[in-house]
Amino acid sequence: MAATLTQMEGRGTFARGVHPPERKHFAEEASIEVVAPPPQIRLPLLQHTGAPCQAVVKNRQKVVVGELVGKAEAFISAPIHSSVAGVAARETMVTLPNGRHVPAVPIKTDGEQLTGQALWDDLYGGEWPTSGLEQYSPEQVVQAVRDAGIVGLGGAAFPTHVKLTRNEKKPTDTLLLNGCECEPYLTADYRLMVEAPEPIVTGALLAGRCVDAKKVVIVIEDNKPEAVEAVRRAADGAGVQVAVVKTKYPMGGERQVIPAVLGREVPTGGLPLDVGAVVINVGTAAAVARAVVRGKPLTHRLVAVSGAGVAQPKNLLVPIGMTYGELVAFCGGLAPNAARVIAGGPMMGFALGSLDAPVTKGTSGITALTTEDVRRSEETACVRCGRCVDACPLNLVPTKLAEAARHQDWDVAKRYHMRACVECGCCAFLCPAQIPLVQLIRMGKAEMPRD
Amino acid sequence: MAETTSETKKKPAPEPEPALLQVVASPHLSSTAQTTQRMMIDVLIGLAPVLAMAVYVFQWYAVVQVGICVLCCLAAEALFTAWRGRHLSLGDCSAAVTGAILGLSLPWSAPWYVGVVASFVAVGIGKILFGGLGQNIFNPAMVGRAFVMICFPATLGATAYLLPEAGLRVVTEATPLTAAKQLGAATPLWPLLVGTVNGSLGETSAIACILGGAYLCIRRTASWEIPAGVILAVAALGGIANLADVGAQWTVWHHLLGGALLFGALFIATDPVSSPLTPRGKLIFGIGIGVLVMLIRLFSGYPEGVMFAVLLMNAVTPLINRWTIPGPVGGPVPAPVGR
Hints:
The complex is a heterodimer of chains A (451) and B (339).
Chain A: E1 32-34, E2 40-44, E3 54-55, E4 62-63, E5 68-71, E6 80-81, E7 86-88, E8 92-95, E9 101-109, H1 116-123, H2 138-147, H3 160-164, E10 174-179, H4 188-195, H5 197-211, E11 215-221, H6 225-235, E12 241-245, H7 254-262, E13 277-281, H8 282-293, E14 300-306, E15 314-319, H9 324-330, E16 338-343, E17 350-351, E18 365-370, H10 387-391, H11 398-406, H12 410-415, H13 426-430, H14 437-447
Parallel strand pairs in A: 1-15, 10-11, 10-13, 11-12, 14-18
Antiparallel strand pairs in A: 2-9, 3-5, 4-7, 5-6, 7-9, 8-9, 14-15, 16-17, 16-18
Helix pairs in contact in A: 2-5, 2-8, 4-6, 5-6, 5-8, 11-14
Chain B: H1 36-58, H2 60-83, H3 94-104, H4 112-124, H5 140-151, H6 153-156, H7 176-183, H8 189-194, H9 206-218, H10 225-244, H11 252-257, H12 261-268, H13 279-299, H14 306-323
Helix pairs in contact in B: 1-2, 1-3, 1-9, 2-3, 2-4, 3-4, 3-5, 4-5, 5-14, 9-12, 10-12, 10-13, 13-14
């Protein structure tokens, strides 16, 4: 399906980038399954970009689904709510997939709570209004989003109410809903668009009211024709447009999707707000709708468990706080030749050393890869072929950056704009010499002096 | 050098089957289409039509010359790498490529020791001394050739190509460029295209070079911007020279099809290690080579200038890289705001 854009300034794609194998076939046909609450969950008190929460429940306190567990005082923060009914226990420590150790509140599941189809209906089913949303003022919407603890569900977990708070100095004219899901294997957003596009549209309209957007556009890659159909039907007549863009990695990045749809470049070190745009994930939009229209906090999220390394790839509706291991077990366990389990997608996700970590608001998927999938040739010397330069979507020179990082040459690093790198992985994906470019650049960014 | 991978073996807690979980940095997928070795083999495949034409035109001389150079380059790499105490990597075929290009750039009549010396200098000084694969500034084959050109001038000079009483007809005539420079004669275009003229082993057949070069450009093993720049510059300057002397028999087409231009543009200049990194840089590099080739051909005592042009532009490549640092999408990184 060709890229189709109506009245869009962009040309439906961006320069450079790569085409990793999509491998969506593992899980794209699997309807979303609701996972029953596990015997215990652990809620990390930091599940978002920003300041950690403070626990407000005490040991042996009874909690219900949706009860406030961690309160957020700072502006760039988001409260945390319980995803099960049960009994809270003493605070403990957990290790998140990115290596951070954070405090967490364990809750032993006990008592009445919605499960199965009833839970699905409560979260995504039923009627979702596309008109009459003027009754919610922008301030009400932002407050509801904040109280519900909604953060970006695309993976960055940035507190959404901050994004939706109107900025007088930087007006917005377009709200983009990111349904691109450009990472291989991941299919959670896709299934949401196919099975429940209505809350996405409602959430899009509500978010659009907050930022006073003149245009609200849902962006989908052209490898998801079913999703485009479903969303188009739901958005018909609601004042929300659908833009279909070319499938390329990393189309889902805001620095690529905004040029593709709107033809505007996001300034390095800046935000989409600097060019009059706000981007939120389609899953986040559905959560916004749920928070405003039904008054429900963020307690569950969709997680795609995919890859040849898991016995039965599935798309799951998961209570936040379940462990990765429990989800993998729900999908039949790891295959005998599983080699790597990744939190997120294979291009930018973190490899897990232990499946004991809890699923957080930022967990978009679990990718299990086999030894064949991750096989690489030996690393050899860079022959300056320039493939990394041809691939980098931000027009950087990754081989020079990696060399500078290896030799701690910060002059070269600055001259070649090392801090502009977003670590998308296009360069390392293509490198014929199998040089770990992203790892070296990440190292360099961490060690580079601040100035 | 920092450890780049680590594997931790742990039993994940709730799993019934034990699994070895690797902990490695992203990205976890890798394009299997290209490796460095595959790129080198591509160059050898691209050289196949050139070698075939060379054998057809120069027969046994071509086989001997290229054979000596390839063997000596491999031997030199093995010797010098072992000397440095480094791990042997002949399998990556880069030495074989250097040998093939070097052999094809020599005249049919060069004695065996020319090939041997050129090979050892090409690999030893042109590559290993700089630090091995990926570290050299100059094209190794051209370094070797330049060395023997200065050491044994008679064996690589214009007279070396010519043997009026030879059984092989093609070597009884001067090379097209020598004929143009010294006798003012213009070889017809068809033999230049096909390759039935005198010259270095690989340079004679324009068709063979174009076929092999096109293969390399399509495979992205060679960056098309480089030969594009070379041909553009030669066409422009040759066109100007043509306009200045309308009646001349040696036209811009002769410049493009004759001599080592196409061989140099498609196989020598496109060596990725010694050429710039960015598309814009590669174009500038190609144009520079084209300009220098024309200057040497038109105004110097040498009939052909590809080797010197490539070496000179190799020297300028670090500067070109510096001049063509691309601006990131979204502009340069802003200076940190003082707090």
